Amino acid sequence: MGSRIKTMKRQAAELGRIRTGYSRPNPDPKKGPIPVKSRTFVLTSHSRDYVEAAAKLYGGKVEQWTPQRSTIAQWRVITEAPELRAILPAGDPLSQNYEKWDGGGCERRCDGEFESIKRQPCVCLAKFGEDWHERPPTQVCRPTSRIGVFLPDLPDLGVWRLDTKSYYAADALAGGLDTVLQATGGKGLLPVRMWIEQRTAVREGKTKQFQVVMLVPALPKLRHALSGPISTAAALDPSSLDRPAIEAAPAERPDYLADARACRTEADVQQVWHRARHAGHGSDELLADLQAIARDISKGIDPSTGEIPADQDDEQGPDADGAYDVEVVDDEPPVADTAAVSWPQAAQPGQGVRR
Asked: Are strands 62-65 and 34-45 parallel, antiparallel or unpaired?
């Protein structure tokens, strides 16, 4: 049996990143690259194979690219697809913090109340007050949201991590995801649709443009997202949730006449009739045939062959002393319980079942 480190995070391998923007060279060589907000997602990875597969699926041109403050080249594609179809892993896949980065890495990481790197109260709140988030990112931390998703139509098992530093995107992501997690408990996979919306807002008389990453359940009906976990098969093919269930093939109809001919008493044949009626196979024709078999059995005729026993072909009369040649037994034969099982009243022999 294997064993695990209980305090170790168990997460799938990260195959690449999903970004909402990219950079282009600055005409002034003395200045850094110019950031550009993208209308579609940008997929980046250290693996060219993954990016080429993404370009084939979502459109776009594969190009080599080196992230800022890095010397290691990667690959990227600015996709042409208006949205991505993805699958959320089980659990809570969203991680959010206020973060401030500099050349040496992450300087601060805070949940809005407590800064975890230097283990102190929120620096931005103490310095700038409740409206600190309206300050420029050079002065304060930025809301940073990370969420890992599976892209099921791309190769290999692993997650693609979406990073966004939009304050409004952080709010929209958390609100929508929490609604679903409340219903599913984070159990099982969930198919989602993702796209980028360009929005505007007026703040202090100025119109501000910003991006929002939309992430919603990709299910036929809202009730499917709120009614609890779904199967892995349904997560891979959400349309199956709206398909009618496949009806089971009808059971093979028993051969009631063969069963009746194997009986030895009329009561046993009546049992065959009631079994057929309860199965929905009862009919006047079957009832008449079973009654005919029951009459043969009552007369001592073999219903399988139609043969009459030799001692019943010709009735034997008494011998010279007036005695009949019969066999005497000590015990009386058992009497069938005809009260429990009987023919239907309207189908008693002689009451016109056949018309």
From this structure: unpaired
